[in-house]
Amino acid sequence: MQKQSLPSNYNPSPDLLKGKTILVTGAGDGIGRSAALAYAAHGATVVLLGRTVEKLEAVYDEIESAQGAQPAIFPLDLASATESDCNSLRDAIEKELGTLDGLLHNASVLGERRPIESATYASWQEVMQVNVNAQFLLTRAMLPLLNEAPTASIVFTSSGVGRTGRAFWGAYAVSKFATEGFMQVLADELENISNTRVNSLNPGATNTAMRRSAYPAEKPTSNPSPDAIMPAYLYLMGEDSAGITGQSFDAQ
Ligand code: NDP
Fold first, then answer.
1. pLDDT reported for residue 3
2. pTM value?
3. What's the CA-to-centroid distance between 27 and ligand 1, angstroms?
4. Active-site residue, 172 included
5. Of the chain's two ends, which shows fewer C-beta atoms within 10 Å, N or C?
């Protein structure tokens, strides 16, 4: 797989996302929280999706106090999300906001870190549900709206273990390979029939709760903060990446 890098010294314009509506999953914490704040700071109206309402409310408040466009909150646990939940969200976005220009699939769960031989089916299913199946339901629900936008961007979140398999990363790694595959299939499907581009982004080691739980012995500050990797998230969501589709990017 050929990996892509950002243009060097990428410097997004302050108005990069002005007038755009962007849905971010897992927007209450970690990289999703930083992406929601960065998108709002660059002019977007952000739809904050996540499972912990208090965290979404805190992000909402941060955007409001920074004088960003008024965001919207959509509480949804992707472990139990149904077709009907995703379609309701699409209808609500259409009714309240009129358009959808971007979708950042960011929410994921790590699951068990153990050999396949002793992995539990319950954990395997939860990881596949949140990291893969819910992405499919949300993507399918949002596509009609995204395809109506003048140009739209779907960004899938990958991982190093979604590009080269590694022992003991189990369902999480398999789910990230599936994510890369989903990105490629969708990008190929849409390339000649819509202005929606589809790419994947591997954030790389980043100081979040997920990273700290995967590497408890590591010094957290040895990795960049989520805010530090936002240039890649802005580049792929804004018009500077127009026309680029089906590519796998690294944020670091
Ligand atoms: P965090 O665990 O810090 O944040 C994940 C976010 O997703 C949280 O807001 C969490 O909500 C939300 N989420 C988890 N499960 C669900 C669910 N069932 N329904 C709705 N929301 C859910 O992770 P990161 O910020 O580190 O990771 C973000 C993305 O980056 C993931 O896709 C991850 O795989 C990927 N990644 C991260 C790396 C890293 O080093 N951090 C490296 C490579 C890839 P809540 O806060 O309520 O639990």
1. 65
2. 0.98
3. 9
4. yes
5. N
